[in-house]
Amino acid sequence: MSFVLPELPYGYTELEPHLDALTMQIHHQRHHQNYVNQLNNALAGTAYASWSLEALLSGIDQLPAALQPAVRDHGGGHHNHSLFWTVMSPKGGGEPTAELAAAIQQAFGDIATFRAEFTKAALSRFGSGWAWLVLQADGQLAVTSSANQDSPLLQQQIPLLGLDVWEHAYYLKYQNKRPDYIEAFYQVIHWPEVSRRYQLAIRAVQA
Questions:
Q1: 0.90 exceeded by the pTM?
Q2: Does residue 207 register a pLDDT over 90?
């Protein structure tokens, strides 16, 4: 099968003023599309072309060494961005509720501490990468960060919330002001989607 660029669940302008339309369009149509294209090119004609994206990333050690860099970089880029678009919404912001809120409070003490740790992960990632809220194999939440397009799936962690801190995600509007971009992201987080992902993930690790 060939991987395809997912459509955004909103228009390019709809996250303004927090994320500008031009950045969203370039990020989606050019950067994400390139990851899809490069992944398809790398897998074309191989037995691994039929594997799911999740299987490729979580089982990367089973792949031929020659394929692993493309899957890590381009497969990771495709998976990371596919999540990124869905955990934002024009009606986003606020705080998590219900089961996810309780799990965050159990793991971090309170929502404010979680947010401080997530912000620290995003700010302290040197160069390009991501900040994550993940579910670990033991069923516990954790805040992590990863370099480049590395997916938490490479570490057998399930990503629930991800923030892209590559400069292409924010430089047109925020230039070198990564803290301002991070603050803007909190205004568009789509917590119902993060909660949905948490519920699926917790069932998966408990199965």
A1: yes
A2: no
